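Page 47, continued from p. 46.
Same chain as before, 309 aa.
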Amino acid sequence: MKKTMVNENLMSAETRAKLSGRVEVLDKVKELFLLPQLEMMTAQQISDYYEVDIKAIQSCFYDNRCEISADGVVKYTPKTIAERFLLKGEIVKTQYYTDFKLSDDVTLRVPNVGINLFFKRAILQIGMLLRDSAIAKEVRTQLLNTFEHSAEEQRTHEIRTEKEILANYGWAVLYGSREQIQKSVRELVDYNGRYTKQLEAECDKLKNAVKLLTHQAREWTPRQIVNRLCRCYASACLGGSFQSAYRQLYKELLYKKHISLEKRTGGKCLLDRVRDDEWDDVIETAAALCIANEVNIESVLNEVNAEKV
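Result:
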């Protein structure tokens, strides 16, 4: 009977979500060879990186398609590659595929039916999910070490800060004036409420963004606003992969708003299944996705208004 690796360091979905942006770990564990000019990898390249059979990568992808695709997986045909990328190099077309010469020693063969290409975040996501790979296990170990180190540094800083504030408060109570006591009390209250204030600020930022969109783009339907947000997010963060942007939106709707569009019957496009009373939630979720990835909401609004002129 085949033995599987013990102590795989497998992660929960919550931990994977927190660490999905730490792509620098990939090069730290092993040199990552991305396709020249495209800055992505094929499934075969990923299998070479993680030192497993390509079937293991394909199985991992198909078992976790939604989660991995949300981090950037795009299916390109020869036509879409030629249209989207201004490639420098020889292009050889045949009846069944097209070869793109990306560098002196790298040629990408793209079948007419298309090929999946993976961004760094998707490659990292596979590493967090893949079993029976020493490289994937090391990637997870490095991720957890980085996460724990950052968390420990934060905890140490907070403990030190809290001790200083408490010490100041104690000194003020024992030896200070009334004004010094009041000041130390305010510092202690502000420190204890720091996360609440941060959360309130983030909520206010999101509410203002949604208000800005819905108020100034009155001639647009909610669906048009959501489409524009997703397209801007895709262009800024996912190499123009609109499919991945929408997958991420549907995933966020499920986790944060408990709206499962995939389980509903209706139109072929999942947005056709949104109920009238849910559009505010959908816009808010799409806007939050943009804000979390530093996509300027005002630039989205400018594009909306420009199209109305």
